[in-house]
Amino acid sequence: MRFEEILDELIDKLEKGENWERYREKYPEFFQEFEPLLPLVLAIKNLPKPEPSPERITTILLTIKRQIKKKEKKMRFPLIVPLRAVAIPLLLLLFGWLTLFFTNRSMPGEVLYPLKRRMEKWQISLVANRKKDILLHLKFADRRANEGSWFLRERNQISAPLLQGMLAEITSALSLFDQNSSSFTEEEKECLIGEIKNANEKQRGILAEMRSCACGCETTFLDAAIRKCEKIGEWVEERMGKKSPPKEKPCPCR
User: Fold this and answer.
1) 83, 141, 192, 195 — which has fewest CB within 10 A?
2) pTM of the model
């Protein structure tokens, strides 16, 4: 046997608690070399094994835990980024739709009402079709009429600016009709005159309601507005061909 093999065997026996003196007779030719090495080997074997500090162990465990959580999140939510890319435009679209919805239903004195009036002007400026332009003016005239009626119910007051706006919108519709009547078909003319008639009748009803509960300082303006609606009614009848011819004055000779 080689020296290294004999030394390994001797160390194993010593670790098991056997007496190493008996190997003196077994390997007399090597024992003189073994004898100074054995105490050193035993001393090394009995040295305490190095152990990591508790702080170091805690740090390593926390690091492992964080890495595991990161991997779990990546595996659990692989679609978060694509969903976010879709959700943000949808939320913006929903916000815009809700703003438009509440803006169109806002009333004088409310926060969104100035935006409502501004949007009406934008709509008018963007319309290139004259028929749609007339219908828009009638639509906005109807809004002013509804707002005036609401103002009377809620505030118990008559709003002259709302009534002026109502009459201005329907007057604009009449003016546009006369300017572009030659470009309309007979069917379109009949449809537009019918819309103007309906708007005017509704406005006359609202003005009559306001007139019945108006104070003395408000009657002058209301009477002027009612006369304006009567003239619009005459305009409608004339365009519809229903205006009765003027009566002839009786001859003084008879």
Assistant:
1) 83
2) 0.58
